[in-house]
Design brief:
Number of strands: 2
Structural class: alpha+beta
Helix content: 40-55%
Radius of gyration: 19 Å
Largest sheet: 2 strands, antiparallel
Strand content: 15-25%
Length: about 210
Amino acid sequence: MTHNLAPFAFHTERRLVVLTGRKARNLEELLAHLGEVSGSSIFYHTHHQYLAHHFETPVFHSDFSRWASLALLEEALAEKLAAIDLLAFSSIRQLREAIIATIQPYAKGNGRRQECMPGQEFHFSESKSFVMPSGIVAEDIPDFFAKLPGVANTSLYFHFFEARLRLGRETNDFSAWLAYRGAEELARAIDRLNPYRMSLDELRDRIARLGK
């Protein structure tokens, strides 16, 4: 079977979140751990809020920016961490380096060693993902858009967030498959969507509208 005839199999995932045993009381300790924790931990702390359903958009999606604001009262740093454009990176390594580079000036500035209150330490976690077929398979492009409304948010999350950054693919899985099918313009239109600026429900709706 050639690539352009292959159906699209929607996948989903189950995640097991575990503590790593690493914790930070200040920015120096945070930096030390950031250089050593797994890529899974970096991905988890910058992405897990996007999978959660919120009736209101949180102020900070990143756990690092939230902790800098609430535990260390470093508002300027928190805003800069929150402003990191996740869509600009194609690997966890690049994202890790950007986070470290953002924090370093604050960790060294003015000889400060601002520590959080006891009980407010940053605890590093990581998620172990178990990817599996969802049972939904699209045989062609019209079938893809017909079945898209029945796809779970966990599947959207996997094909847009996990596949592109954590798995190091050049684009989201939907655009890659549509391009193989010969729908390059539609593939580019979906690739231009920024999933970090909308909920997963909104993302599904935007993709569906592009396919009409």
